[in-house]
Amino acid sequence: MIEAMHYAATGPGKRLRPAVLLAAAEACGGAHANALPAAAAIEMLHAYTLVHDDLPAMDDDDERRGRPTVHVAFGEGIAILAGDGLLTAAFGALAELGPYAGAAVAVLARRAGAFELLGGQAIDLTASPESLGSLASVERLHAAKTGALFAAAAELGGIAAGAPAATCASLGRYGLSIGIAFQHADDRDDQEFQELAEAAKERMRVLGEEARAIAQSFGGRGARLASIAAWFASQA
Amino acid sequence: MIEAMHYAATGPGKRLRPAVLLAAAEACGGAHANALPAAAAIEMLHAYTLVHDDLPAMDDDDERRGRPTVHVAFGEGIAILAGDGLLTAAFGALAELGPYAGAAVAVLARRAGAFELLGGQAIDLTASPESLGSLASVERLHAAKTGALFAAAAELGGIAAGAPAATCASLGRYGLSIGIAFQHADDRDDQEFQELAEAAKERMRVLGEEARAIAQSFGGRGARLASIAAWFASQA
Fold first, then answer.
1. Residue pLDDT, tens place only, B130-172
2. Packed helices A165-189 and A148-160: angle between N→C axes, nearest 10 degrees
3. Is the dihedral of CA B170, B172, B178, B181 positive or negative?
4. Which of A80, A109, A121 faces B92 most closely, judged by CB atoms?
5. Number of other CB atoms surrounding residue A52 within 10 Å
6. CATH top-level class for A2-234?
7. Is the pLDDT of residue B100 over 90?
8. CA A9, A64, A121, A185 torsion-angle sign
9. Which of B41, B51, B116, B115 is nearest to B84 (CA)?
């Protein structure tokens, strides 16, 4: 199971969420070193969602990033446990944030919990396609499934840097914007919701602008946040 | 999914782990009210382990406590997500412990993580019966699968009451002892490891004594811990 956890968390991938987290910490004047436990936590959290998402009872995917998925490589039982282990280890890593541990755990539990990330996955599992006919309902799903974890990444960066609550909330909006834009780009690449493609393209532009404006509110220290927003906008 | 989480966490059951947690808080002079978030956390953690344990890829159980298991009642995908949601909510509840949140999350992540609880479940899933031929190896499995969560319950009670680390460690040994004894009793009721039954009976007596001695070290405030130890010993 430990091997399966390692396999899941260290596969090829862009490490976007930890990059956002460290950029957010930097924007708040925090040292990278103090934010590293949170960066590890957000990547383990993301890895767990992929392991459980790929299971036969969920999306039933055999391959991810060119490699067999965890349940194909290690069996379904071990894949369930490995996902559970990564989720548990993510919270364990946040406990290393000292005085900020409580706030960090509260944010991750909310963003990754039943009313955001997991709620989005449950909708994905059970919703009929026609219930997702409008851009607004598609974006609500994107906000839960993808936006929530990018929002958590940005907020956790602020928390690890000791930023005040209002700043962390603003970072959360930054993360939500790039997360939703990212999922629009993903849909386009997967040719999903094609009848909404034009509207989604315009939304990606607007969301990218919103994220860039928040990044700029941090001045020079927000430069990395701004480049990340620009990269997301360039995917539109 | 929310309904499935509720179904899983509120079924019939003895609520032993929260009872141990509150008794441990009481032994340390803590108020029940301050320990309630941790009591909720340990029960949600326990409920999640049952939901995932019952899945077809794990123990494949259709019934628990006289009711259909979660995947039978709600489907396998929702059962996976509901377990994930309960695990996430457990850590979210610990975030409410204010200054003790970090220590509490660290303890639960370790006890419920890949090297204790989940490690035990992985062994359960993959070990050959002959590798469990001795009482010592059976007890190592019991310590991981059952002892770890009772240990976490007792430690979290101490942490929520602001007890020093040495006291929490002692409470952890109390929890481990009653947890292992509990699992021996469970094996006897399920007629597992029958060739070890006599030795296990003697171990249950010894473990009960150990737990009782730790409870008594708390003086009058440890009375409830002592009665719980006596109840576990009476199951022998």
1. 777 788 889 999 999 999 999 999 999 999 999 999 999 999 9
2. 150
3. negative
4. A109
5. 28
6. mainly alpha
7. yes
8. positive
9. B51
Which residue in B53, B49, B55, B60 sits closest to B17, CA to CA? B49
Contact B110, A88 (CB under 8 A): no
Beta carbons of B109 and A134 less than 8 angstroms apart: no
CA atoms of A39 and A71, how far apart (whole Å): 25
Element (H, E) at B41: helix B32-53
Is residue B55 classed as helix, strand or coil in its secondary structure? coil
Closest chain A CA to residue B83: A84
User: Helix A165-189 crosses helix A223-234 at what angle (to 10 degrees)?
Assistant: 20
Structure token pair of residue A38: 């949170």
Measuring CA to CA, which residue among B182, B159, B175 is closest to residue B210?
B175
Question: What is the three-class DSSP state of A114?
Answer: coil
User: Structural domain boundaries of chain B?
Assistant: 2-234
Contact B91/A at CB under 8 A: yes
Of B156, B168, B152, nearest in space to B97 by CA = B156
How close does chain B come to A60, measured CA to CA in Å? 10
Q: Is the ipTM reported for this complex over the cut 0.90?
A: yes
Question: What's the token pair of residue A176?
Answer: 């939500």
Q: Which two tokens stand for residue B43?
A: 């029960």
Q: Pick the residue from chain A with its C-alpha nearest to B76.
A: A57
CB neighbours (10 Å) of residue A195? 9
Residue closest to A5 by CA, chosen among B113, B79, B104, B144: B113
Tell me the two tokens of residue B177. Answer: 């002892």
Encode pLDDT of A6-26 as tens digits.
999 998 888 999 999 999 999
Q: Please state the length of chain A.
A: 236
Q: Taking CA atoms, what residue in B is nearest to A75?
A: B57
Contacts (Cβ under 8 Å, ≥6 apart) of A64: A11, A50, A54
Q: Is any Cβ of chain A less than 8 angstroms from the Cβ of B108?
A: yes
Asked whether the beta carbons of residue B77 and residue A58 sit closer than 8 angstroms, the reply is: yes
Q: How crowded is the C-beta side of A35, counted as CA atoms within 13 Å?
A: 30
